Amino acid sequence: MTDTANLPASLELDAQGLRLRPWRPDDAQALFEATRESIASVSPWLPWLHEGYSLEDSANWIAECQAGRERGDVHDFGVFDAQGRVLGDLALNRIDPKRGSANLGYWVRESAQGQGVATRATRAIAAFGFQVLGLVRIEIVIGVDNLASRRTAERLGAHFDGILPNRIILDGKALPAAVYSLLPPERDDASPGPALEDSQVRLRPYRSTDAPALHAALHESMKTIGRWQSWCTPAYSLEDARRWVAQTRLAWQGVGDECALAIADRSSDEVIGSVALNHWQPDIGMANLGYWVRQSRQEQGVATAAVRLLARHALRATDLRRLEIVVAADNHASRRVAERAGAHLEGVARHRLMLRGEPVDAAIYSLVANDLR
Q: Where in this chain does the record put each N-acetyltransferase domain (predicted)?
């Protein structure tokens, strides 16, 4: 990790219109006012903020932050708007130089909640942690029922590692917590998955720069893809696309399940669809294979070629012995893709899928190595 002894006392981070800087002694009154305003919303998750919280507590906290910064085990920042008003607090703490890890905590004053303050601020301090401190892992540990803070972690693109029992102590009780993690951003040229192509299509790992094209492709395709994929709705945002790209890149490194590749136009390299291996069952050598193609490029053989290309790679280069394609029984276009790719129809399973909260029947197809010869 980086030696932080020489970091300037005037250090300030920009967070899309917000200013993040270390607390100063003369911030005590403003910090006190922000905390007192927020007792109802913050105190259920941060027991130090209680009805007896005083101006002296704010002054002591600022002194502790300064001492932690000098030791190098805490970097705590106040969050300020353009006019200098205190909006909240966030910190990288429990910094472990040997492991290159830290915990990320945050809170936002009640009158500034629901405005994206926490997401912008946490994104900036995470970048500081990776780029300046040299961290390799940042954890966010949140009470399971603290839905607002969990949404912030998810918007940040943090990976949900799971629910851990007895992970936090609140009011003297050991409680489960949702644990999220952030890893340093990858360079897009550091491909986390295979690049495959034939005479028809090119499959490649997603890049962070693909998010706008992914977003546009899905919004073009609401009538076709949206009919069969509950997540594909007009509410699907550019931030959703960015988060999904980050998740699928992590999956190729063994973090998560959605090992997707972009189906790219051979001339422009723009995203025109997606094909993925997910729902892995390594103990029996099986995974699911899913796919979609944007509406303007459908019925051109793109999906069929992509399915065959990824299936051939998966069944030769991994321990997988069987791929399943599970398609809503009435989704005739996707069923034709499976059949043209050489998949074997094994039957129709009743209530096999959930679509917008309703169970639907699904056609079950399978691919094994002999099907692709």
A: 18-176, 201-370
